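Quick review question:
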């Protein structure tokens, strides 16, 4: 199993020198771009990221106008095309485009149709549901069929991982660590990180991606999970 660990964004109090430090000194080998949910980056900014992040694997969080305003409907497709064009300078490093769904978006035939439409538009689509109706076997089978990666949250939604554990789609798991008792402001206990590690291993993926989105504790928690999984013999491709 190849392991990729990173944080959701890199502008935090634990980072003394931006993306360049993150890529060469953090101990992480992947990053989840979070600012793209709020605004479209400039093309020149993406080109600068390309220069500073050699070796890192990326997940790009899709803009909220696509996921939350238009909720993946047909009118969002044109915006998606413009959004994706911006990331051409790092396209070869991008493993996922992350579609975080609004909490009110349940799994319905219409929602399934919208996800399927995006699956036909592009590869590397990863979806993180925030409504409990998505967390069941039939949905996982649908994602497997369409080639859409399912993002497993560790969050207050279930006070940890969902009951089914970590979901593996086509040999890939993608876990987002938000915090168990509070969103974003949470430090994981060692036993909780070991539990997550065991659930990842039990899913038996070829590749596992884990991104920490718990602000101040994300660096220490991410490195500790990496250490636990390395003890279990996983492979950790280095970014430098």
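Suggested answer, residue by residue:
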């Amino acid at each position: 199993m190849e392991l990729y660990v990173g944080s959701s964004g890199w502008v935090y109090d634990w980072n003394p020198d931006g993306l360049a430090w993150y890529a060469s000194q953090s101990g992480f080998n992947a990053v989840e771009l979070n600012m793209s949910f709020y605004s479209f980056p400039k093309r020149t900014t993406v080109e600068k990221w390309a220069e500073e992040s050699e070796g890192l694997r990326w997940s790009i969080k899709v803009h909220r106008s696509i996921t939350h305003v238009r909720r993946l409907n047909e009118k969002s497709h044109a915006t998606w095309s413009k959004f994706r064009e911006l990331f051409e300078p790092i396209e070869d490093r991008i493993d996922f485009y992350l579609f975080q769904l609004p909490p009110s978006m349940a799994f319905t035939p219409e929602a399934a149709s919208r996800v399927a439409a995006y699956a036909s538009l592009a590869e590397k689509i990863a979806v993180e549901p925030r409504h409990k109706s998505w967390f069941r076997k039939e949905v996982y089978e649908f994602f497997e069929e369409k080639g859409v990666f399912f993002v497993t949250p560790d969050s207050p939604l279930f006070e940890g991982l969902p009951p089914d554990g970590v979901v593996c789609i086509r040999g890939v798991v993608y876990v987002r660590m938000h915090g168990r008792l509070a969103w974003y402001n949470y430090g994981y206990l060692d036993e909780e990180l070991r539990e997550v590690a065991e659930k990842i291993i039990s899913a038996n993926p070829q590749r596992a991606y884990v991104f920490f989105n718990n602000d101040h504790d994300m660096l220490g928690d991410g490195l500790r999970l990496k250490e636990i999984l390395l003890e279990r013999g996983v492979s950790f491709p280095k970014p430098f």
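Why it works: The mean pLDDT is 97. The beta strands are 2-7, 30-33, 57-61, 94-100, 125-128, 149-154, 168-169, 172-177, 207-212.
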